[in-house]
Amino acid sequence: MEEKQYSKAHKLLLNNRRTGTVSGVTDVISFDIAEILLETEQGMLTIKGSDLHVNRIALDKGEVDFEGRIDQMAYSEVTDFQRTGASLLGRLFK
């Protein structure tokens, strides 16, 4: 199986299942108190939990900070999700 080459570094830092930072983020698809969905250099990252909050989005640097009770984190391929419309930030700043 051939391994994909990625252009930017991707890093995931999780502290005590309460706070986290993700780098290598290319887009924020959605977020609410139960789930955060990010497109990263390594694929789609789904973060599930409760009382989740996104504290900082810096897409120019490819970084997202979040907090809450993190119960699950999972990666999947970008093609597994049907993306409709613009990104979250694109929809916010129409």
How would you describe what is shown here?
This protein is mostly beta strands and 94 residues long. Helices cover 5% and strands 56% of the residues. The protein has one helix and six strands; from the N terminus they run ββββββα. It has one helix at residues 88-92, and strands at 11-15, 19-23, 25-31, 35-40, 43-58, 63-76. The chain has a six-stranded antiparallel sheet, with no helix packed on it. Strand 1 (11-15) and strand 2 (19-23) form a beta hairpin. The radius of gyration is 13 Å and the shape is globular. The N and C termini lie far apart (42 Å).
Q: Tell me the β content.
A: over 45%
- Per DSSP, the total helix count is 1
How many β strands by DSSP? 6
Shape: globular
In this structure, how is the largest beta sheet organized? Answer: 6 strands, antiparallel
Query: Could you list the spans in which at least 5 consecutive residues all have pLDDT below 50?
Result: none
Average per-residue pLDDT, rounded, comes to: 84
Helix content: under 10%
User: Roughly how many Å apart are the termini?
Assistant: 42 Å
**H/E element sequence:** EEEEEEH
Query: Strand sequence of the main sheet, in spatial order?
Result: 1-2-6-5-4-3
Provide the gyration radius in Å: 13 Å
Which structural class matches the secondary elements? mainly beta
